[in-house]
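=== How it folds ===
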Amino acid sequence: MSDQWDYLVDVLVAGTGAAGLTAAVTAADQGLDVLVVESTAKWGGTTSISGGGLWMPANPLMIRDGVRDSTKEALEYMDDVIGDAGPASSPERRMAFLRTGPEVVRFLGRKGVRWRRSPDYPDYYPDRPGGKVGRSLEVAAFDTRLLGDWYASSRARDGVPLPLMTDDVWLLTRAWSTVSGFVRGARFVFRSLGAYASGKRPVGLGGALVCSLMHIVRTQQTPVWLSAPVVELVVEDGEVTGAVVEKDGRRRRVRARRGVVLGGGGFARNREWREKHHGLPGYSSAPEGDLGTAIDAGARAGGALALMDDAWWGASVLGTGGDAHFMVAERSMPFGLMVDARGDRFANESESYVDLGHHMLRHDVPGPMWLITEARHARRYLNTSLLGHKKEWTRAGILFEAASLETLARKIDVAPERLLATVERFNGFARTGVDEDFGRGRTVYDNYYGDPRVKPNPNLGPLEKGPFRAVRVHPGDLGTKGGLLTDEHARVLREDGSVVTGLYAAGNTTASVMGRTYPGPGSTIGPAVVFGYLASRHAATR
C-alpha cells in the first residue's frame, strides 16, 4: 500500500557510472519517473576515472568512416575469443550486446553525447577470426561548466582533469621519441590551452563520458541522491517492488513500480570478498566505494552469482599508500621485460592486460615480480604509473636502480647469473625481431604500445645501457568481473534460470558477457552502457 512507502517512482537506479546513468537517461526518455541513488559522496563510479572507451562493433561511426564491420563478424570474433564462459556470456546475451550497441550509440548521440572513434585502437586479439581495428568509441572532451555546482561532487575530478583522448595517450607516451608522438603532443597542448583560454573547463576519457551522461540526467530533471546506499531490496511475493535506501542517516522505502536497476559496480575494494573469491587482498584501481553492496543486495533478493573468481586483471604497481597504479603502455614498450622472483620471463609483456594478469596469477614461482628496464625506456617514453613517484618508491623499496644488471639483480634478491641469462636471451630476440619464447610483438595490438622506430620489432628493444631499473609489480585490476547473473534483457536470474521479477542489473554488478577475457578496448563500459539501456527499455514495458 502507498502508505508503506516514503517515495514512489517508476524506476529506481542504483549507481552513477556508465551503466546506472545510461539506465536513468533511457528510463526518463521513456517518460518514466526516475530516481538515481549513489552510495558514495561522489558520482561517476569507476567509469569516471577510466579510459572511457566503449567496445562497440559495427557502430555508426565505423560505417560513416567506411570501415567494414558486421554483427556476424563481431559474433565470430567473440565466439572465438571468449569460448564457452557459461550463462553470463550466453549466445543470447552476446547477440543482445552486438545488436543493441549501434542503437545505443545513436540514441545517446541524439541526447547530446558527442562520440568520437579511436580509429587506430585494435581489438586485443586482432589476428583471430573477425578481429578488427577501430571498433572502440569514446566521448569528446566535455566542458564541465555545463554541470555547474554538480561537478564539485564528480569523481572525474579524481582522474585526469585534462581533455585527453585515447589516441592522445598512446602517442603521448612517446612524445619525445617519435615524430607522430611529438605532433600529437603539440596538438594536445594547443588544444588544451585553447580550451582553457576560452574559459572552458574540459575533461576527457571516462570523465567526459560520465559528465556527458550526468548532464543529460540533470537536463531531464531526474533527482540524484548522493551518499544514499541501497540497504536492501524489498521483495513481495517473489517480486522486487522497491528498495530501502539510507539517506541523511534515515532509512527510506522507495517504491519502484517498473523495476530496480542495479549499476553500483563490483567488489574490488571488499577485502573479505577478494580473499574469499580471488585468494588475494586485491590491488585495484577501482574507487573506494566498490564494495559489492549492489551485488549483495541482488543476491539476497534471490539473484544467482557467476564469475566471482575473476576480474579485469592487469599488472599494477602498489604505491606507498596502498593505491594501485595500473600499467598499460609501460610493460609493452621496448627496452624492458618482466621477470619473476627467479629472474625468468613468464609471459608476453605486450599482451592484453587481462591475459597478463591471468598469467601472473597462474605463475607458480613464489616471490615478487619485476618490470626491468634500461636507460632508453626511461629517457624515450612517458612512464605514467611512475610519474612523480620515483623518489618515494625508491625509499619504499618499490623501485630500484643500479648502474649494472648484476647490481640490480642483487638489490632485488635475484641471482645475477639467472637475470643476465634471461636478458641475454631476450636481447637476441630483439636483434632478430622474433620472441621465440612468448611471441611478443607479433600482433598489431602488441605493436600499438610499441615504438615504430625500433627495428625489426617495435616491442623488442635490448637491455644494454644503464642505469637499469626494477619496479615491483602485482596482479592488480580495473575492477571485478563477477556478479549477478542476468539475461539478454538485463533481468537478474535465479540459480534455476527463472527471472527475479522487477530486478535488473548492468555493469560490474553483473557477471560479464565478455566471460574470462577482454575482446577489445572498452569491453567493460560498452556492455555496461548497452545493458543499462536494455534494462530500462524492458522495465518500461512492465
About this structure: The mean pLDDT is 93. Residues 316 and 431 are 29 Å apart (CA to CA). The first strand starts at residue 7 and ends at 14.
